[in-house]
Amino acid sequence: MAIAVDFETFYSKDIDIKGHGLWHYVSDPKFDAYLVAIVGEGIRFAGHPSEFDWRLLQGKDLVSHNAGFDGFVFVHLVQAGVIPPNINFKSWNCTANLACFCGAQRSLKDAAHALLGIDVSKDERKWMRGKTWSDAVAAGKVEDIKAYALRDAEVCLALWEKYSDRWPAHERELARLTMLCGWKGVRIDMAQVEDSIASLQRVMFDAAAKIP
Questions:
Q1: Mean pLDDT (whole number) for 99-110
Q2: Using an 8 Å Cβ cutoff, are 36 and 52 in contact?
């Protein structure tokens, strides 16, 4: 049995994954992981990450739809002191990667439609664009947002339970290693970068001097 984990975080036209990249996104002062939904093995929780007893997940198999994101948010929250340290999982797999392996599109909405035959609404997520958790409270949307997050976690778990046995172990390991590479970033020879910049500046200077 696996347990699905789904973080909901602040995003706007000025701060999102696409524009910032993962590390810069979670490091932005406006970043806020205001909600986590956790479903599986008798657990059904939706609330602030600090309110959950993470010890319940010790040694468990976790799944997320885009584990590269949810796992990185988890690590960030541990470093920030929101989640206690030394919580070790047996595994953390990605149902978005699983969906792609099964020939479906990556998004939860498209994967659910293609592989489970169900429609997933993202209306609440769209409503939260540019809004804080305080905005949701003021608008009376708290229960709607929690229900939305729980639904996403349930769909993620359903994808895993129905299709995970089709995903070979070596493909899972490749997905895990790719995720870790994304977390660690790209190694750069800074000395070479600086030499190359200096060289390019000389080329530009020489070229500019030759312009009539």
A1: 96
A2: yes
Q: Of the candidates 36, 12, 78, 130, which has an alpha carbon nearest to the alpha carbon of residue 20?
A: 12
Select from 65, 57, 64 the least CA-distant residue to 84. Answer: 57
Average model confidence (pLDDT) across the chain: 95
Q: In whole angstroms, give the CA distance from residue 190 to residue 152.
A: 42
3-state secondary structure of 211: coil
Contact call for residues 3 and 118 (beta carbons, < 8 A): no
Cα 207 from Cα 93, distance rounded (Å): 52
Residue 106 has pLDDT above 90, yes or no: yes
Largest CA distance in the chain: 77
* DSSP code of residue 104: -
* Spatial separation of the C-alpha atoms in residues 149 and 28, rounded to whole Å: 23
Express each pLDDT in 148-190 by its tens digit.
999 999 999 999 999 999 999 999 999 999 999 888 877 889 9
Helix intervals (H) in the chain: 17-20, 22-27, 67-79, 95-101, 108-111, 123-127, 133-138, 142-163, 169-184, 190-209
pLDDT of 1 over the 90 cut: no
